[in-house]
Structure prediction request, 202 residues.
Amino acid sequence: MKKTLLLLSMFAIIFGSYAQKIKQTKGKLAFLKGQTELSVSFEQSKDLKVGKYTQEKYIKVKVDKANDKEPGAGEKWLSSWNADPEKNYYPKFMELINEVLNKDGITVSENNSKAKYEMIVVTTFIEPGYNVGVSRKNAYTNLEVKFVEIDSPDNILAMFTIQKSPGRTAFGSDFDTGTRIAESYAKAAKELGQYLIKKKAF
Prediction:
């Protein structure tokens, strides 16, 4: 019993420290009423931070460290890092937000020609986390989500921030950085979709 309580306490600490927060910072959602199609696009902030570094510095540290262990490994890591957003992060976001919104008849897709409005998902911070078996740290991301009319993209109709969206797999097999970060995007998408449904945005 004591061991069970200890484990539960540890999980509470781990997950509590990464409590995701969704906050609407601008606008109202009335413009979405009656919409069944949404377009989505993805961006990275110009001053994106990765852990304690700028993204540029983080890449240099990781590439140098990998090459010190094995010549050429740094370039291999960089190729994977650059491919991950389009290959893993954004598809996970799309999958999960559609999983939620499809139930209410809403479809979200990139370059959606049927949509009047677009959701722009901007990544402002990434904590890659780590998993070395005996020790681990969740990934998490901070996102900014802007809603604009496609014909008037400079006019932001509503804006959200999603802070500390946690990323890990259920059974702790997320040894790959891209997998952890992708799960963070999935969590953010699921919570955002549920928030929009709860607020009866459509």
Observations:
- The radius of gyration is 19 Å.
- DSSP finds four helices and nine strands in the chain.
- The mean pLDDT is 91.
- The longest strand covers residues 152-167.
